Amino acid sequence: KFIEVGYRPLREFKTIKDGKVEKKPIIQFTLEKLFACDLIDEIIIVGHQMLLEQRLGKFIEKFEKPCRLINQNSPIDPEVVKRFNIIRRKVKYNTIAGNLIKGYAATKACKHKAHALFVASDSPLTTREFIEHFLAAAQKYQNQAAILFPAILIDADKDKLERYPLKLKNDTEFDLPGLGLKDIYGRQGFRLSSLMFANPHLFDINTANTAYSLRKALNPNVQLRLFRITRNLGYPNVYSKYFIRKDLSIKEVENITSAFFNGKLKLIPMTGEESTYDYDGTDFEYRMINKMLQTENQ
Known about the structure:
Layout lengths: L11 E6 L2 E6 H11 L6 E5 L1 H13 L5 E5 L6 H6 L12 H10 L2 H4 L4 E4 L8 H14 L5 E8 L11 E3 L19 E5 L2 E4 L9 H6 L6 H13 L5 H7 L5 H12 L3 E6 L12 H14 L2
Parallel strand pairs: 3-4, 6-10
Antiparallel strand pairs: 1-2, 5-9, 6-8, 6-9, 7-8
């Protein structure tokens, strides 16, 4: 076993193939979709290089598509630090932001100052069709935004992992007619997936680690920090708009997050609830995702 304690990308999950149970690391589910997607011309993996090479080396070699491994513990190149105006105390080499910028700097997209697709390794139910659908939509709007996220419609008060969605009014051009329960305030539930289409040349990478730490926006402890930040950005009424007036909209969220990132952010409402089922390390998530993976191919 090459599983490192606490290293989730190599945690094995079960699926059914040709009537037989097959085990593979959670990251492999995602890589299979990326290798199969014709819209993606290269893959950069940032992680524990030695463990990934040991466990996935032969799997990666089967594909013609270029694929590189970058060590998550390698320092950020001084040229990259200079180019993206990185503040080292805010973007340490082994953080989410550090790994994001190391991976991006190794891509063709970086050379052309273009957008790239960023994919987390912990959502094994994300389909190739969903990735292609999001990429097609994101590429249409890439000239309008530095960062694009899919906002996934959750058609229930809670999803299958018993997680609550963010309730927002959909005032975007991406209408989902006839889909999604609306509450009495006209809001629908949305969650983010494991995908992001972004160009770090167009936003402040120094904000990325803080943004990642705030991703669980419905956690009360996170909310205190979140509302302090939004007040400092010039949006003092976010709490009342969400919890009292209950009229916070997607476009308002876009404006607030754009101010935070110092770069335009766009949300694209989509269906595809399975893409939001990321594994955060709990036994319940492990059991439920395993169950969904095994029924997916039956």
